[in-house]
Amino acid sequence: MFEFPLKVTDLETVPEQYHSLYQPETDAAEGFALDPLLAGKLDVSGLTSALEKERGAAQGFEKELKAWRALGPDPETAWTARETALRAEMTAGFDAALAQKDAAIAELEQRNGAFLIETRATEALLKAGGSVELLMPHIRAAVTLHHDAEKPLPTLHILDRDGTVRRDAEGAPISLEALVGEMRNSPIFARAFAPTKMRGSGMDP
Length: 205
Description:
Blueprint: E1 7-8, E2 22-24, E3 32-34, H1 36-42, H2 45-71, H3 75-128, H4 132-142, E4 143-146, E5 155-158, H5 176-185, E6 198-199, E7 202-203
Antiparallel strand pairs: 1-3, 2-3, 4-5, 6-7
């Protein structure tokens, strides 16, 4: 079947009965061109484009249909499976965001706790005439925060070497000021405190 090309270089390639449908080009070197009216009727590019578009849409629908069929044998089962998957995905995202938030809160609480310990320790050391630079590492190692649900702010607890809370004779946790007082009277840490001033026949406490 002759396909009527738009241009030919030699009429010998065209069946004789169709020679009249081809006109010579202005430039003889370009050969012969199909009659414009007939060429317009034979132009199926628009139809081809529409056909390709429909074919693409059909392929997309087929892929989507296969995806739904993979979820279940019927629409109701497929929708239930899809809903379950979406809920699991949302839950996982929520849990991840919550874990990230909890981690940020924990880090903030840790920083605030360290700041509270250093602030209180600095105040107690300066009041007792102690060297903050020398004594702070020892105090930081001996102090921990205790969170009480009935109190808005955590309290400071002094730990013994075995990790238990140190208590006074009445059973109450000793204060940070008491710890600083012990350090001031210690032969090891006393050198990190300013010497006491003599007053009359005695010494300042």
